[in-house]
Amino acid sequence: MMQRRHLITASSALAFAAALSPMAAHAASPEGPDALIKRLSTEVLQAVRADASIKAGELGRITELVNRLVLPHVNFRRMTAASVGPAWRSATPAQQTRLQDEFKQLLVRTYAGALAQVTDQTIVVRPLRAGTGDKDVLVRTEIQGRGDPVQLDYRLEKTAEGDWKIYNFNVLGVWLVDTYRSQFAQEVNARGVDGLIAALAARNQAGGQ
Q1: How far apart are CA 117 and CA 12, in angstroms?
Q2: DSSP codes joined into one string, 141-176
């Protein structure tokens, strides 16, 4: 139960950074990772408040939002591979594609519930502790609103093209990838990669529970 609560909290927090601006790819100069997270976090709050269908948990609208705005700024392949663990390397290309598809659907379904909770939250980005040449950085933020502040940290990598992509995040001391890796390893050890794919598909069909 505690692990599931952390997963829901983590996925809820990621939702606050999910609505990425379509203008980002056309920016005149590259954004720093902290500036990127600040802008994206602010925009998702505005987008959700302005779209009743998202707040209502409409999966089609949320999926469109994720595909169009989110995934271009996330190294989703790396996130999926790290979550699956060593079994990823032995998976066939077709299995890897299925794993990415089912994992994405799992997260999207979780976003649906998380986005419905957006009210008057704000995001505070902590000062970035990184050198100018660093290509892998940690951006620390805090979600402030009703109740206690929620710690939300992001891991980002700098691509060869010079932009930044999210590949992991931490909520209240729990890294998303590590949490899923523990869950997925149990399934892989018991039933193999196909068993994990089947388990994810069944979970998605059941509504992500």
Answers
A1: 8
A2: EEEESSSS-EEEEEEEEE-TTS-EEEEEEEETTEEH
Q: Which domains does the chain have, with CATH numbers?
A: 2-205 (3.10.450.710)
**Residue 10 and residue 30: Cα distance in Å, rounded?**
27
Q: In this structure, which long-range contacts are made by residues 170-173, counting pairs with CB atoms below 8 Å and at least 24 apart in sequence?
A: 170/10, 171/6, 171/9, 171/10, 171/13, 172/6, 172/9
Question: What integer pLDDT is reported at residue 15 of this predicted model?
Answer: 52
- CA–CA dist 61, 55 (Å, integer): 10
Could you say which residues of the chain have pLDDT below 50?
1-2, 7-8, 16-28
pTM here is 0.77
Q: Which two tokens stand for residue 109?
A: 């379904």
- The secondary structure of residue 74, as a DSSP letter, is B
